[in-house]
Amino acid sequence: MIHPVPLKKGDKIALIAPSSPVADERIKPAINAVEALGLEAVVGKSCTSKNGFLAGEDTIRADDINMMFADKSIKGIFAMRGGYGSARILDLLDYKTIRKNPKVFAGYSDITALHVAFNQKCNLITFHAPMPASEFYEGVDEYTMSFFKRNIFCNDSLGIMENPKDQKIETLVKGNAEGRITGGNLTLLASSLGTKYEVNTKGKILFLEDVDEVPYRIDRMLLQLKQSGKFKDAVGIILGQWTRCEAENKENSLELNEIFKQLIVTENKPTICNIACGHSTPTMTIPMGAFAKIDNDKFII
């Protein structure tokens, strides 16, 4: 796997919108947040484009990615937000150019489709990280910012990935596992199955998180991964945050922990949960494709 060259102050950073449109009022604060890191923001056409629930036509969003990777003056690329639409442009991306020009690429949520594609097709380590128009535009806590900076400005091992002090990491299945980390948003991973962009978990540690999904839908998607052999192929599993994933009528629903026990614990793979990563803050930044370890209740990169 290729670890991109860490960023440094003064580097040009491309801001792109591969998925849903960026709210007009968030663009300037997002640029300011990037510049506050000592970086120079270059705004892609997709950031100011709209096509229904998409940030412009598929070609506009794909061209932004292809051009920003090809441009030697651009040292990093930040997705402004998630939403929906990244999977639509996967066939339009120039993977040869992306592989020849490895650089910092960061985002999360719908950006999971791009993480998996870049990890698997380009051998590029990417960053599951908060985004300028989703979190940074209104300011974030020190924990979130510290993790982000440690990833994009440095390529040293991160060591033990500790949660905030008031958030305990829990062990669902004890044991040790090591392998490269893959995954991200559960919805995107489930939708990749059966396509040429299907997530490959063989010998890897699988990370999962999601937002605004009721328990039965999480059950359905986890079952899809299970029946596709994705848990069996993985050496370990890490569960992040499940934000606003609650049933309206809890009496007629399984709790998430019950679902995890029935569908994941039964695979008998080392599994930890409640990792501070997902659609919430504070959140850690995770280098997708990097070598990682599970040591009982410890997550190490």
From TrEMBL:
Domain LD-carboxypeptidase C-terminal per the UniProt entry, residue ranges: 178-294
Record's keyword terms, sorted: Carboxypeptidase, Hydrolase, Protease, Serine protease
Domain of life from the UniProt record: Bacteria
InterPro entries the UniProt entry points to: Carboxypeptidase_A_C_sf (IPR027461), Class_I_gatase-like (IPR029062), LdcA_N (IPR027478), Peptidase_S66_N (IPR040449), Peptidase_S66C (IPR040921), S66_fam (IPR003507)
Domain named LD-carboxypeptidase N-terminal: residues: 13-129
SUPFAM superfamilies named in the record: Class I glutamine amidotransferase-like, LD-carboxypeptidase A C-terminal domain-like
Full protein name: LD-carboxypeptidase
Species this protein is from: Clostridium neonatale
Underlying gene: ldcA
